[in-house]
Amino acid sequence: MEYARELEGLGGIYLVDTNQFGLEGYGAAYIVDAPVAAIVETGLSYSAPRILRALAELGLSPDEVGFILVSHVHLDHAGGAGPLAQACPNATVAAHERGAKHLVKPAYLVKSVRDATGPMFCHYGQAAPIPRERLLELEGGELFSLGEGFQIRAIATPGHAPHHLCFFEQKTRSLFTGDAAGIYWPEADRLLPTTPPPSFDLERSLESVQLLRALKPERLLYTHFGEHDRPAAMLQTYAKLLQDWVEEIRSLRKQLRGDGAVKQALLEEYGPFLEGLYDPQMVEHEITMNAQGVLQYLDRS
User: 248 FRET partner, CA 20 to 30 A, in 80, 127, 271, 282?
Assistant: First the structure.
């Protein structure tokens, strides 16, 4: 199949590469092929046609999609929710109650993304509004029964954003991580921090990681990107990575004059390594955006 890739040992769960920013292996959505089909994560708005083609490859009609679950409303996770809701007339879009309003009226969300991403904003697509009656507002703990034993529980995991959720599929013990467990780079078997403005919070992120570890998942399904079969080790590694990343930025801020100098130092340190993952413009965007999230967190601390 060209668009849908079945995950080994997880019969019924498929990965769809959303081709985020035109890159392969960076953004993922997932399809749960059950009597009530579910889409978990939606990518950017221009990812929706790829997800619909994946449904077709699986022999699923858009009418069979019962739920569209988004971890949070950042556009690389929820930008495709609007066009997918239009294409899947029976689907309920489920998101955290603190973020759902931005899917109904996305103007503020789009402005926030524009402010955070600067010249990279042109790569983030659009945000089509979703009718309020198509939305289900979650607070965490809700259970979605899809049939054939598939059950997905929403897990409140603030830190990356206050409205962040993970989704835990209980039959396969698979955890859809959103951005709560970092960015996984399969080729290097390495994790990268994801700490964007405006709401990154270290303490809440660490609490969320511990909550995820307590679930004892058997598989992590990263939005960025793909599956991993050593969840306990990866979650522990990410907790330490977050602490080290924040402490490095805290230390650089004490040593250097101005936040611009901090970002430049981080670019010089990490830029060469990340060039294997991103093009040069993306390298600068990713490092400076995630640094800015930590700098704003330090201002609040």
Answer: 282
Reported as a single tens digit per residue, the pLDDT across 54-84 is 999 999 999 999 999 999 999 999 999 999 9
Token pair for 131:
């009718």
Contact call for residues 93 and 81 (beta carbons, < 8 A): yes
According to CATH, what is the number of the domain 4-247? 3.60.15.10
Task: Please classify residue 251 by burial: count the beta carbons closer than 10 Å to its beta carbon, then call 0-12 exposed, 13-18 middle and 19+ buried.
Answer: exposed
pLDDT, one tens digit per residue, over 251-266 is: 999 999 999 999 999 9
Interhelix angle 280-300/231-255, nearest 10 degrees: 80
Q: Which of 86, 252, 15, 293 is nearest to 285 (CA)?
A: 293
Residue type, 154: A
Sheet holding 174-176, edge to edge: 143-147, 150-156, 165-169, 174-176, 219-222, 226-228
List, for residues 103-160, the tens digit of each pLDDT value: 999 988 888 888 877 777 888 888 899 999 999 999 999 999 999 999 999 999 999 9
CA 66 vs. chain centroid, Å, equals 21
Rounded to 5 degrees, what are φ and ψ at 165? -125, 145
- Counting every residue written for the chain, the total comes to 301
| Alpha-carbon torsion (137, 162, 142, 44), positive or negative | positive
As a whole number, the mean pLDDT across the chain is: 95
Query: How many other CB atoms are found less than 10 A from the CB of residue 140?
Result: 16
